[in-house]
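Example record

One chain of 121 residues, shown exactly as stored in the release files.
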Amino acid sequence: QVQLVESGGGLVQPGGSLRLSCAASGSIYSIDAMGWYRQASGKQRELVARISSGGSTRYASSVKGRFTISRDNAKNTVYLQMDNVKDEDTAVYYCHAEVRLGSSWLPRNYWGQGTQVTVSA
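Predicted structure tokens for this chain:
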């Protein structure tokens, strides 16, 4: 009933910029936190950035100062602005949302399909 659709991934040069978008749709009553996770080859999935419904943010130390997470509550969309990207940012990026469905107020976790970000010259 809930889908997270990601866009914006692709190939980017070191030092360049990229913006990821993720739009949630379905039988949504409200969305609590939204965030971005990533999984590099051979490594476990890690939190990149998270934003609460009120706009509070949290970043992984490795991206702090370079990435910016934001959201548009009216559009049920979360963004990740990636600036000054590095080779080590190469990974599959996953959108995540804590969603309260219209039929139940209990929050549930939903994930996007993942989008590849490759940093290479």
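Notes: The chain has a mean pLDDT of 96.
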